[in-house]
Amino acid sequence: MAFSRRIVLHFPRRLVNRPIVYRLIRDFNLEFNILKASVTPDEEGLMVLELKGKQEDYEKGIEYLTKAGVRIQPLSRNVIRNEERCTHCGACITICPTGAFKLDFVTREVKFCDEKCLACGLCIKACPPRAMELHF
Amino acid sequence: MAKTIEEINEKIKAGKAVVVTADEVIDLVKQKGAKKVAQEVDVVTTGTFGPMCSSGAYLNIGHSKPRIKLGGGRVYLNDVPAYAAFAAIDIYLGANALPDDDPRNRVYPGEFNYGGGHVIEELVGGKDIRLIATAYGTDCYPRKKLETWINIKDINEAVLFNFRNAYQNYNVAANTSNKTLYTYMGVLKPNLGNINYSTTGQLSPLLNDPYYKTIGIGTKIFLGGGTGFITWQGTQHNPDVPRSENGVPKRGAGAIAVIGDLKQMSPRWLVGTSMLGYGCTITVGIGVPIPILSEEILAYTTVTDDEIFAAVIDYGGAYQNLQPGIIGEVNYGQLRSGRVVVQGKEVPTASLSSYPRAVEIATILKEWILSGKFWLTQPVVPLPGIDSGIILKPLNERPIEE
Ligand code: SF4
Ligand code: SF4
Predict the structure, then answer these.
(1) Around Cβ B25, how many Cβ atoms within 10 Å?
(2) Global ipTM
(3) Exactly one of B14, B107, B140, B322 is catalytic; which is it?
(4) Taking the model in full, what pTM does it have?
(5) Is B191 at the interface with chain A, CB within 8 A?
(6) Which of A8, B164, B282, B302 could form a disulfide with B54 if both were Cys (CB 3.0 to 4.6 A apart)?
(7) Domain ranges of chain B
């Protein structure tokens, strides 16, 4: 189970309602986490997945998705918080579209849950002391 | 039982003073009652840590050989212009200064990655700063060009001097327009998408002494990690605003001007700050001790977030045109819960100042007092109060006709 990847899937309109992701588990033995799923205004489906499994199964799964007409992008950018610079103000909380920043109501510190981060980059410039960093 | 500041200082010297922070005192009074706490506690410490634009530092860099007169010339520190309009080698660097070639908002929203606040942070952190200056040259100061590294440990003076800090309450910012706004109150999403607020509420210095009964000119404070003093009321100090029954202003009201030796301070408490689409500034740490001279003064320090109200202001048009734009009133308890209801809509909230860091400041100040290294001062003059006759005036703009 060592192998895991985060990918962004773009579904064309004709595939939005088909059980494509389901087949990844059934036929390719892959585990997945849905990090984000939405349908854009022009009705393209967008899904960010974390896939886990054997590398060969992963590669077969990707091949299947590509053949089915799904466009795949790796999510290779990584957003990291520079703990030295973060002042725990909280300005990022309402900026992040996926709710990756959580306020601890007891300590009032801001927790960064990077497993929820989609690397959209919105918080990078909205953070006043620039504590959020984009790494490639 | 009334105490005096001298009596409290005697106790500090003897290591017997009782000091608590402005959030600790709330529970303490709930447990023990106000009478007992007013007798037992000598000092309540407060704190705030947020972006404060009217801040800057003046430096005396020492005379070069041959001499140069910077006053009337141009000076840059790490490419950020400093104000050179004094004697030969005194300069002032403002937190909002930007390099001449910064694109500002030409690429909208501007990023404002580096400015005066960042130079101050690096200077305080002991980094070498590149100084480039030109001057016109005089008989006594012949030199016209200077390019050198400077370091805070080598220059004669480095003094933080901020003329409006630690606002007593402030606007809560919202945006009812249909476009994202990039403001000094952070990014405001359209159609009431979010709300930003800025004070540390029940921990904030002037909200714990609403009528300035103990805080005044000459009050010794925690400033940027060192000690400093209140030198004056802040610009736009405006005490006569609507207040709650507990005396706490419901709008932006008082402010303080502060000064302190930059050489004692630390970059942890002076952080260069970039407000997207707005500009550069600096996040400043300030803590003010409040001597518990009476039960009345104690009562002011027990104010809780739920009892501090602020106006929600619409930055989607009203603010720009100097209209009130008040679209709601909320308290800090509600703001801190993460959501408030404004115009019938539930809106997520975020803070621009750091509550955990403000707690840390109040705690450091408490420890300084307990260890006897910080004592209290009697203010020379109180800050102007609600009877001072101060009225905040808009600009009286008059066209210039030749
Ligand atoms: S906006 Fe930046 S400094 Fe403030 S809590 Fe978020 S990451 Fe930390
Ligand atoms: S990069 Fe985007 S998704 Fe990730 S934490 Fe920042 S705002 Fe949230």
Answers:
(1) 25
(2) 0.94
(3) B140
(4) 0.89
(5) no
(6) B164
(7) 5-52+163-393, 56-160
